[in-house]
């Protein structure tokens, strides 16, 4: 393994795709120095997008969360969230009616802007499930797991409706050494129990990358070889970027640590184009 | 598929192994007429055991639960629960110290009678996990899923300790058309997240059957061909019985319904020796 | 379940995506009457594409195979094969050097047109693997399974290179009641053994649908709601079409039979927009 | 991790269970010095058994294979093979008729001594499958994978019969750096394709350990805490031994290497009682 300087790596590309958690920020702070990277991108006129497996909040709220931390370069238009993919699916395939969801009140944004009535699983009456048109796993917060996961299970057993998972992650970081179960793992448990096939949206799936690719407007001549995907996780960021035909940079500020990076690449067979200490331009 | 009269089936055997849920009882009632079966077993001098994936209560408490419903033939000595296998493991392999558990206060019985200090996951201090010697998934009740499953996940990530699953079922019936998530499914979710290998106890595993087999004392001449396993679930009761070399009877009062039994046998490849409407001797 | 007349279904759409096996043809014959469908498409000016999990032959050879059976409407430009996606990946990510492959001599087409040197696994010298840049599972024919699968396994264990699966199907039909193991199942076995992550191309993955979507040139105003995906398999054609936001028609001339269609939809949770007896316009 | 001297470890036990491959021998040689261990066992009167996932040959032939290499202490009575468990199952549950098998001519021993007619898959006529009573995966040699695995798949699809896997290993070592696909991995591929449930015999399953446990005759007072399981593989030898309540010793002459042992134990959560350089008494 050889480390590449991050600036050297990005100088070869016109557009950057960034993962959020573990690359730009931790649970409640920015990666120290990351604002210098966005200054450099501004100077050099490089376009960028944030590709994030997150359906807990709207792009506007996600952008604000960076502003609150002191990073003002990221606007809603730069954010591609897995919640947006779920919304697109619902617009094409469900169209109208009531959709039940697991998640925070904020996560309902993606359902309501699709023109649907959003009903929190916490408010679902088990005796009155007949007009539910779809079920969406959005976020791990906003409901009581003991009672509402059983309600979810029985809804899926009784009704043949589309089930959508808007964040495929298994865990997310809470602190330096603590993680929390993400809604993707909960959805997988229910899927295993019922034996049905849910529809998943988020990295490493190609749709996430295509969605961002189609948003590249300022650079009409951009091809896939002009884009670098920057992430901290082999199984989502790097695998997805590779499969979509992009070059990829693995950074070591999140899920993958320096001392294990060689072993992880060898054992998974997922090979980034570059390995960089962090996404900070020094 | 041909239905066999239950009495005709059992007349060929000296010993009966029964599953509990869906065979002898539903969530809060006996299968109507099941007391006649136990009268017949008494008359004909056939021995029987209840093999149940259940670690929520001690054999004494499980026996009492039948007495409360009006069935007095089942004593603690007739019950082989998956909790007993977990206890046996702990006696051989953990010996002393504190064991954390997910489950009701009653489920701690299996840990305490193994000479161990039982600490509910609800009472575990995340900052003070160093003296935990093992973790046991006992039952789905007795803790807060939102907070305590994350605590469980972080305990397993930080400490290299044995993790035991004392009930491998994915769901259990709550009412005629309602099921609840069992602790086996929750344990599987955590196991998938951490990528470690937990130790599972319960049907269809051979240990459950061996445990019962070794309890057959009154009938020294009993061989496996003298035993009939009676259950309502192909993947646990029938598969486990078959694999242990027993004849098996599938009854249609629980997880497997008459209209689907042919299709289920064909699609799973799990083949019972007999199919009977119920375990009731008429 | 209600059957929809195929003509009624397609009259609502401008563009049709067809699966090949089980929809247009069986192993060595056309679905009787299917040429009438293509006559109708010609008359009504509807555009169509064949989306097929097949990397055994080039689009030209695939088109010829329809011509030999008497169907002349399908040209190479109408065919989107999973082999084309694998080729695209290789063009972006491997660029030059030698690529080992499992498959027929014809399947090497996709590698050679990507500017790569193709080396059949049958010709690979186990003592001389150092310059292999990638490995591709193309097709189940063209090599000796006993010896060459072991060679494949050891190549993947020793070298950290991208492994590509250009056909994700598990089986393909040989005759009315006989199936054969497809290369997707073989690749899955090797992937399970080594614990690495291969890159899969083919339905139900979004990339297949995007590839076809981008080929729609004659109809600049076509949106996803103008397209109908027609297939015989819930897990690939219908799931993939649904997830991409297309309406879907399940036909009963292949993997899914009339008597089981209700049960299959209910048990998988994969719901087509229409169910049609066949893709034949009467 | 701390290494324990092998003699120190075994001095605490009355009975030893040994894995074969990677502990006593490699593909075609003994582990250097292993004969000293058996001399020591003889002197000290310790009993031992070889527990091996192997159905390619009879216990007599397996014992002879040690004799040919110069180790004369191992007789047929000391060998517990997974083939013996499969035979026991067949004796109880199939009784008579023809059983198809995948494996060498020698592996048919386990079927024929169960009183059954053994028919190699290579000799099975696909048009004449009606009197096959069961199918057994014995060994990876003795048949043509290209043709006979498809025959196997179609047999299982057409007939609802028990399918037995008499060796659950995924690979076996061929040389210092080369492995071969074992029949367990092939069986898993077919099982995944058909979606049926096969019956597996071999470590880490409890039945293997019980079988050996019941053979301990010379030491009537032996309990589980008097037995040490010695193996080179965490997922079979150590997991199975632990779960059965035995103490376990991991040796580093086979599947687990010194430099990775800590990481493997931490990442799998499978914890041996001792780690020893080898099973050689110095």
SSE map:
Four copies of one chain form a homotetramer.
Chain A: H1 6-10, E1 15-18, H2 34-44, E2 47-52, H3 59-68, E3 79-81, H4 82-93, E4 98-102, H5 109-112, E5 117-120, E6 132-137, H6 145-158, E7 163-165, E8 171-173, E9 179-181, H7 183-194, E10 199-200, H8 206-215, E11 227-231, H9 234-243, E12 247-251, H10 261-268, E13 274-276
The chain-level structural class of chain A is alpha/beta
Biggest chain-to-chain interface with counts: A-C, 36 and 36 residues
Counted up, domains of chain A total 2
The radius of gyration computed from the alpha-carbon positions of chain A, rounded to a whole number of angstroms, is 19 Å
Q: Report the sheet with the most strands of chain A, covering strand number, pairing sense and barrel closure.
A: 6 strands, parallel
Note poorly predicted spans of chain A: none
Query: How many individual helices of chain A?
Result: 10
Can you walk through the features of this model?
Four copies of one chain form a homotetramer. By secondary structure, the first copy, chain A, is α/β, with parallel strands linked by helices. Chain A has two domains: 6-51 and 203-270, Rossmann fold, CATH 3.40.50.1000; 83-200, 3-Layer(aba) Sandwich (Rossmann fold). Chain A is built from ten helices and 13 strands. In chain A, the strands form three sheets. Chain A has a six-stranded parallel beta sheet, with helices on both faces. A five-stranded parallel beta sheet of chain A has the order 5-4-6-7-10. A two-stranded antiparallel ribbon of chain A has the order 8-9. In chain A, helix 6 (145-158) links the parallel strand 6 and strand 7. The radius of gyration of chain A is 19 Å and the shape is globular. The model of chain A has no long low-confidence stretch (mean pLDDT 94). Chain A binds chain B through residues 126, 144-146, 149-150, 153-154, 157-158, 170-171, 174, 177-181, 185-186, 188-189, 192-193, and chain B through 126, 144-146, 149-150, 153-154, 157-158, 170-171, 174, 177-181, 185-186, 188-189, 192-193.
């Amino acid at each position: 393994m050889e480390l590449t300087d991050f600036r050297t790596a990005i100088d070869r590309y016109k557009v950057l795709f960034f993962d959020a958690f573990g690359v730009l920020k931790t649970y409640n702070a920015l990666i120290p120095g990351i604002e210098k990277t966005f200054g450099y991108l501004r100077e050099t006129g490089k376009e960028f997008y944030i590709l994030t497996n997150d359906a807990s909040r709207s792009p506007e709220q996600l952008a604000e969360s960076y502003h609150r931390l002191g990073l003002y370069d990221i606007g809603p238009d730069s954010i591609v969230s897995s919640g947006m993919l779920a919304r697109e699916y619902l617009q094409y395939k469900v169209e109208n009616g009531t959709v039940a969801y697991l998640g925070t009140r904020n996560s309902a944004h993606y359902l309501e802007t699709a023109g649907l009535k959003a009903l929190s699983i916490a408010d679902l009456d088990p005796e009155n499930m007949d007009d539910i048109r779809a079920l969406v796993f959005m976020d791990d917060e906003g409901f009581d797991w003991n009672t509402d996961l059983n309600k979810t299970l029985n809804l899926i057993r009784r009704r043949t409706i589309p089930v959508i998972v808007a964040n495929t992650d298994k865990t997310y970081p809470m602190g330096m050494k603590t993680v929390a179960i993400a809604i993707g793992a909960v959805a997988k448990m229910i899927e295993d129990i019922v034996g049905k096939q849910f529809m998943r949206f988020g990295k490493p799936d190609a749709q996430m990358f295509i969605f961002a690719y189609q948003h590249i407007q300022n650079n009409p001549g951009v091809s896939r070889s002009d884009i670098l995907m920057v992430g901290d996780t082999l199984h989502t960021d790097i695998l997805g970027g590779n499969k979509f035909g992009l070059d990829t940079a693995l950074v070591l500020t999140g899920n993958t640590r320096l001392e294990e990076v060689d072993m992880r690449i060898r054992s998974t067979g997922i090979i980034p184009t570059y390995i960089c200490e962090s996404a900070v331009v020094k």
